[in-house]
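Support request, please re-run this one:
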Amino acid sequence: MHRNITTSRVVLPKQVTRGKLTDKSDVYAFGVVLLELLLGRKPVEKLSPSHCQSIVTWAMPQLTDRLKLPNIVDPAIRDTMDLKHLFQVTAVAVLYIQTEPSYRPLITDVLHSLIPRAARSS
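Re-run finished. Output below.
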């Protein structure tokens, strides 16, 4: 993931080389937003004047470790989420941010996965 400094947009690596957006890049972007909400971090953090790190690069090794995951969740929501739900939301986010677009679900599947969750929470 790269940051386009002029527009402050987060851009996927394959978007840079191919120059086009697809439904699969929308799914990836939604996964990044989900990570922002879950972790309370910006999509791109500036580590030094010449180096930035994406939330995906930083979080991915920790997202699949059930022991580390609770420690990286935003403290504002950490104690309000049941661990089972935390693991479920994280698993969904990991699907959405797969590097290979063909491994990501369709945007319609994303929508269908959210409807039952929204209905249960209301």
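Residues 65 and 87 are 10 Å apart (CA to CA). The radius of gyration is 15 Å.
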